[in-house]
Design goal:
Strand content: 15-25%
CATH superfamily of the largest domain: Zn peptidases
Number of domains: 3
CATH class of the largest domain: Alpha Beta
Oligomer: single chain
Radius of gyration: 23 Å
Structural class: alpha/beta
Shape: globular
Largest sheet: 4 strands, parallel
Length: 372
Amino acid sequence: MLLLHHMDVVTADAADWVHDPFGGELEDGYVYGRGALDMKCFGIMHLMALDMLLEQGMPLDRDIIFLAVADEEQEGEFGAGWMVENHWEEIAPEIVWDEGGYGIRGLLKDELVFYVSVAEKNGLWTRLIASGEAGLGSIPRGNNPIDVLTQALHKLQEHPFPPRLTPTSAEMLRRLGSTAGFPQSFLLQHAANPLLWPLVSRALAGMPTLNAMVRNLATPTVLRGGEKENIIPARAEAMLDVRLLPDEDPARFFAELEALLADDRLRLETPADLTMPAVTPFDHSFFAGLEAGITSLVPDCQVAPMLTPGGTDSRYFRRKGVPAFGLIPIIIDPDELERMHGIDERISVENLALGSRVVADVVGRVCKSTPS
């Protein structure tokens, strides 16, 4: 079994923080610092759990590999990707436990749910380039590439891609519906019914995280245009953060996107690698071990599989056919989760302790030797 976490973090401007983002300050039961949630905490939990198991002298029937990598925040090519490419024989795990989900209250309902990632969307950063006629800003000629680009982006905003339910999300909703009240319980447990899905998907559209789990997305994140105030440029471009459902054919999607934009002055530069991501089955024995370990320590909760809207290092292992599961086993609310990549990121000492116990329990359950 491979216990995976990444050591790198996103940037932080100390001027915006109350606490030193790289100080690891402890106050009122919280450890503050960039990476507290994403995801230095999980590396600490792994180490604490392994120490607990060693102290207990528990015999294990498989190797446990502790792997700390860099570069995940930049797509992982020189971290987990490099390890898989260059050191596969040294690791070659049967199971990977990585980040992806959390124990969250209030995402869809008030009850505590531990969301375990078994799949993620296909991240394909794409450049949208508009060409036009350069000239003086004081004498516009009606072919300004910035106008062309903004009109294209407006089309994207006005024509969202239709919602679609994957098997992972259908199972997540089914499990959540099992403890909900009527009529929510009926709708969630039968969300895949063609007659009910329009009603369910409209409700999910108002919840950004859940909406992202059921739609292909092409979100503008970077704009580039002219260099001088009085000059119309010959070119303008936008970066699109394209996130596709794991069973979506990228070639088909980009053909649909070009048909939507329908302008000869526009050009899409798509990634060279359009490989569709693999999905880990949620009926795997490790998922059952996770569920048993979590509910033994946190009785009043549910455990559900989820599709991660973003990306993790798990994809490198899933491509090799290795089941990868994503969960940092802490309890957090959506507002607290907003601190991740935000200001004054933090984790409670209580959650560090809980996560360490869960990891130790699950690893012990899944890897414990049975007497012959």
